[in-house]
Amino acid sequence: MEKHNFSIEFFPPKTPEGAEKLRATRTKLSQLQPKYFSVTFGAGGTTQQGTLDTVREILAAGEQAAPHLSCVGGSRESIRAVLADFKAAGVSRIVALRGDLPSGYGASGEFRYANELVEFIRAETGEHFHIEVAAYPEVHPQARSPQDDLNAFARKVQAGADAAITQYFYNADAYFQFVEQTQKMGINVPIVAGIMPITNYTQLMRFSDMCGAEIPRWVRLKLASFGDDSASIKAFGLDVVTALCERLLEGGAPGLHFYSMNQAAPTTALWQRLVK
């Protein structure tokens, strides 16, 4: 496992209790020695201060931290100010995203696409930041076609992205085909696989409907058959996702990015299986 990079994602807490819980979660997950922790950034920058505060705390603890930065609804001036805050905090890695419009927004601001954000970061800060962007092995839900989605990804890399993290998925073939297609287009940045542990059937279905991630029929039916038996859901989910991770790493994925949902146990259980 040493030759693979892996990272863990948090979302910024909204309450003092949430901050305390995240602190405990991070303390546990730091024992796994991830390459970095990433911290999400709400639509239109709605969690901007929470993201920065969480990142500062991670950095102060001696860990690497990568804030997300979404540009939809933002102006060049507001993004410039955020970049200055990140630099001042000691951030050297950013996950650059278009982001979703918060409800009530009528216009998208000065940036329409993530490649424009990547280009702006490079113009403003040169090579200061290592920039990760998003990739969609099962095609972005708003893309006109799979080829359009690939072209959008290519534009982000051409604008200066160093690497990519995928949306979560449960079909390894979709990931491998996506990587193969990007390589045929001359794109050779590392594409790290996004991993969502399975712990709650209803929550998983809701997230997957929103982001376009496909739950294989056999997995969906098996999870549904457990009803409210959360122990069986977690045990089965751990088996499914462990097998997925093993296949991805054996097939050449450069690393894994765990969507922790601010919980330590699911990611820890997966990692313990993988390092056996």
Automatic annotation (TrEMBL):
SUPFAM superfamilies: FAD-linked oxidoreductase. InterPro entries: FAD-linked_oxidoreductase-like, Mehydrof_redctse-like, MTHF_reductase_bac. Keywords: Amino-acid biosynthesis, FAD, Flavoprotein, Methionine biosynthesis, NAD, Oxidoreductase. Its cofactor is FAD. Pathway: Amino-acid biosynthesis; L-methionine biosynthesis via de novo pathway; One-carbon metabolism; tetrahydrofolate interconversion. It catalyses: (6S)-5-methyl-5,6,7,8-tetrahydrofolate + NAD(+) = (6R)-5,10-methylene-5,6,7,8-tetrahydrofolate + NADH + H(+). One of its GO terms (cellular component) is cytosol. It is an enzyme of class 1 (oxidoreductase). Its EC number is 1.5.1.54. GO terms for biological process: methionine biosynthetic process; tetrahydrofolate interconversion. Transmembrane segments: none annotated. The keyword Flavoprotein applies. GO terms for molecular function: FAD binding; methylenetetrahydrofolate reductase (NADH) activity. Belongs to the methylenetetrahydrofolate reductase family. This is Methylenetetrahydrofolate reductase.
